[in-house]
Give the backbone structure.
Amino acid sequence: MSATESEAKGVLYLVATPIGHLKDITLRALEVLRSVDLIVAEDTRRSRVLLEHYGIETPFGPSLYEGVEAERVERLVQFLKEGKDVALISDAGTPLIQDPGFVLVRRAVAEGIRVVPVPGPTALVAALVASGFPTDRFVFEGVPPKKPGKRRAFFESLRGEERTVVLYESPHRILKTLETLAEVLPEREICLARELTKAHEEFLRGTAEEVLRRLRERPRVKGEFVLILRGADS
Ligand code: SAM
C-alpha cells in the first residue's frame, strides 16, 4: 500500500467473471464477491444468474453501465471512503476491457483508494492464444468503426501492422466488417473466434473471404465474436 492509501478506506476490487462457461471463475473471485460490502455490476439481472449459481448474497450497489459512469462514480467513491469494500464486475469477462470502470478506477487511484485486480477470463486473451498467430506481440484495437468510410480507413491503417491484431465485433456487424476486411486486406490470414467457452465454441480460419463464405452458408449469424488478424508478414 502506498503512503497515500489510507487503511480506513475500503478496497476497490476488479473481479473477472466468466465469458460463457460458469465454471470459469477463480476461487479468489468467489471469495472476494462473498466478502465485499457491495457488488457493482453493469446489469444486475445478468450478474444475478452467476451470483445465484454460487450462492452469493452480497447486495448490489448502483449499477455502472455505459452513459452513467461519470455520474455514479462520486457515490461509489463515497462508499469506498466510508470504508466499504466494493467489487466491480461486468456482464462478462474482465471489467474495463471494453466495459465500464475506467472512470471509477482513475478516481479511486487519485483518491488514494487501494485498487486490487482479481484476474480471470477475458475474451481477447482466450481468442488470441487459440488463434495460432504469434502472441509475443499483439495489439487490442477494440471494436472496428461502424461507419463504412471509417471502417475502411481503420483497416487500411492496419495494413503495415506487424503485430497480431485483436478486435471485438457484434453479430449484427460481423458480416460487414469481414466484407470490408476482404476488400482492404484480401490476403491477410484471420481467425474468427465465436462463442468462446460456450457449447458452440468454434474458430473459423482462413482469409476474410473464406470465413465470410462459411458464415453466409448459415441461416443466421449468431453469437459473440473475437476477430484476430495475423500481423503483416508475421
Ligand atoms: N469485458 C469483456 C472481456 O473481458 O472480454 C468484453 C466485453 S465487450 C462489451 C463484449 C464483446 O466481447 C463481445 O461483443 C465479443 O466481441 C467479446 N466477447 C465476450 N464474450 C465472448 C465470447 N464468449 N466469445 C467470443 N467473444 C466474446
